[in-house]
């Protein structure tokens, strides 16, 4: 009985091992999914550039004197009103200078009072011819000198008062603190930036333009802006400013795009997209950059054979790369289906299962693709 059971178990095990390779081979031969798209007409598209909403005026706030930053009264993102204190310097030395200026003024007042009395006495003596003219002139000169020292002491006291007042940094206008550049305990120089204020008022979008695109922009050029927080809603805008030099690190040119009308609900820091209509007169096709590969210096794409559901390497002639797309001048037709991603993993003649970007099966025989 035991030998019969052992024999049956061994036979069943051999049967399973014989079936396993067949199932594994079937899984390996199962067509893999591939994201497919159709070429688009370049003249029907728009270039867009990501940007950030900024304030038209963004002054850097700084102390007019040097000193140690004692207190920071606001944080980044805080809203401030005109005249509101933002930071304070250590005023110990400034108060000592103010006391010294007051003492000099008191001394100058006493000297000027004494010189004035002496001048009055010598004037009476001169009238009685009891002193010479030269003696009177000397006394008068001392009086004028004391009066000048008095005026100097008053001016120095005013300067000392101003210096003490400059130890408090105040907001020149209402807005939002966009950036902090110093911290409490730091010794700062006169004119060194402490905060950056995004002033209330006009708003605009800052974008970075690549070198190959800067020649297509000009000041006053009409554009369209769309906020990520308000999809589908467009705002008319125009180029207000173009940087004359590229950033030394990113090699891009900064541009400021201003809204052409007063808009509400636009906050600083919001993400935006600036759309630029393409000036393309011909029906040039374009495909996503991820769909184009290169082999031996020649560009190619993977085109789907609709009948056999297989892929074939197709050489194409491309133009200058854009933000997301590449123009195709030859090698493709508008009705072709191509692989949009993962092209480095494909093989010639490989069988695939077409899907869209949402991993939904698609029918290559239909006229248009759902290219979300």
UniProtKB/TrEMBL annotation:
InterPro entries: Beta-barrel_RND_2, MdtA-like_BSH, MdtA-like_C, MdtA-like_HH, RND_pump_MFP. Pfam families: Beta-barrel_RND_2 (PF25954), BSH_RND (PF25917), HH_MFP_RND (PF25876), RND-MFP_C (PF25967). Residues 143-170 form a coiled coil. Residues 205-274 form the CusB-like beta-barrel domain. Belongs to the membrane fusion protein (MFP) (TC 8.A.1) family. NCBIfam families: RND_mfp. This is Efflux RND transporter periplasmic adaptor subunit. It comes from Microbulbifer variabilis.
